[in-house]
Amino acid sequence: MHMVKTVRRLETENWVVELWPKAAYDVQATSDRAVIGFAFEAQSGMDAIGTGKARSFLRRPNTLSWVPGKCPVFSRSDEGGEYLVLRGMPSVMIGHREAGERPLNAIVDPDAVAAACSLRRRLLSGEREIASEPDILAAVLLRHFTSGKAAAPWITAARLAAIDRLIDRHMGERLAIARLAAELELSVGFLVRAFRQSLGVTPHRYVMERRLAQARRLLDAGCPIADTAAECGFADQAHLTRHLKRSTGVTPAYYERMEK
């Protein structure tokens, strides 16, 4: 695996969890253990799961994947995106006969979002224990092995790119969901349903997580906290601190300490 930025890692007797930052990567490997992946951000590149031919991919944010053990994986991206990896789950824990043979990809589920965010908080805050998150992810995977192919999401890659550009244009100001819906020429109700079905979160949560992702990158680069808050659309430093702590388990001051 080639990646230039630091990967955070938490290892227990049964589990290995890694948080990969947004960075270019080139991975070609076959793991003895099954791999669960969760994309916090949109990604694009080339990949091949199993022995299939490498193809271009567009991965939506908040999507879960499952790759059984002994399955070869190739994936390459020039930009990447924040990504969580969990190793150690035996296929019998999922409880479906195909779990040891068939990979799954692009799963959107609110329970998976909550479990992945909880694991990210543990990694960023330096905790050394894992609680019920693997059990939650196993239950999500069982539901999707059982239910078969999911319906095509309304928020396609092209629509998501347009939504992201709109959010980025208004990054430094307040963006109410009603305004977002109006600029997309959609009703608020339809927009909320589309986000839940396609990304597993509400539009408000998605906008906030996008602001926080940009804030974390600025803080990591040494940008002052107050300037970061203003640039990412937070009312003040305290507003940023409150939401960053709630989402990741760490405060902006954590990044200042990392710079020293």
Structural notes for this entry:
This protein has a 6-stranded antiparallel β-sheet with strand order 1-2-9-4-7-10, covered by helices on one side. It has a 4-stranded antiparallel β-sheet with strand order 3-8-5-6, with no helix packed on it. The chain has 2 domains: 8-147, Regulatory protein AraC (Jelly Rolls), CATH 2.60.120; 157-259, Arc Repressor Mutant, subunit A, CATH 1.10.10.60. The chain is built from 10 helices and 10 strands. The model has no long low-confidence stretch (mean pLDDT 89). The protein is α+β, with helices and mostly antiparallel strands.
Keywords:
single chain; 260 residues; alpha+beta; Jelly Rolls; Arc Repressor Mutant, subunit A; 2 domains; four-stranded antiparallel beta sheet; 10 helices
